[in-house]
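Final report, closing paragraph on structural work. Over the funding period we assembled a curated collection of sequence-structure pairs, and we close with a single example.
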Amino acid sequence: MYRCNSGYIPCDPQEEARWCQHEETLCGIIAQGDEFGAAMKQLWGVSKELGGVGEYQTCLEDKDFEHCSSFAVDAFIGGKFKILEKVYDELKLLKRGCRIVSKTSLATAARAGFTTTAVVASGGVPCGEHNVPGLPRSTDEIENSGGCDVCAENIKKSLGGGKIVHIKPVDEMYLPKYRGVDSGWQFHVVVVLNDRVYDAWTGRAGDSVAEYKAQWARHHLIDFGF
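Its predicted structure, as stored:
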């Protein structure tokens, strides 16, 4: 249905050909679907055993100590990955020359069994700016808009780091006017990085905390979280 833009047969071969041009890898996978499926099944079987996913499945089904005893080990490994993820975010910023990875973070990673190497290089985007397509939006799009959580995740990914923060009203159901517009929002989601705030309307370089809060009416009645 996605390739043909329709659930009806026959599908337009021209549209299908265009899809293949834009999605060459996926089109190739579909063309050899049986072989790809068999390869993925084999790969999943190996990955499942290496990652201990098979034990998880058995534990959930049988709920016995024999198959669930590895949870403590897996929880420890999961903690390591959380540490690695945090350091990786900092290293992405370092690669762009935007942040110096703290000695504490590197020491924590070392204790967890990880070694890190970073090369300082420009990523082509100025530090503190994102390059999410379609942003910033017009203030005409504020009223009753949605998807601020997805937008924030895209901005964070483009920036190479940051903290996702939920903005909520205090003792009211809806947030007050934002940039002079009644938004109709019960909450809003933004990214905070290096004391700058980013959302779909701040611009690629974001606003300082003071500048951002000033964009809200009755901002003293808002729980910003920063």
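The chain has a mean pLDDT of 75. The beta strands are 163-169, 188-193, 196-198, 207-208, 222-223. We thank the funder for supporting this effort.
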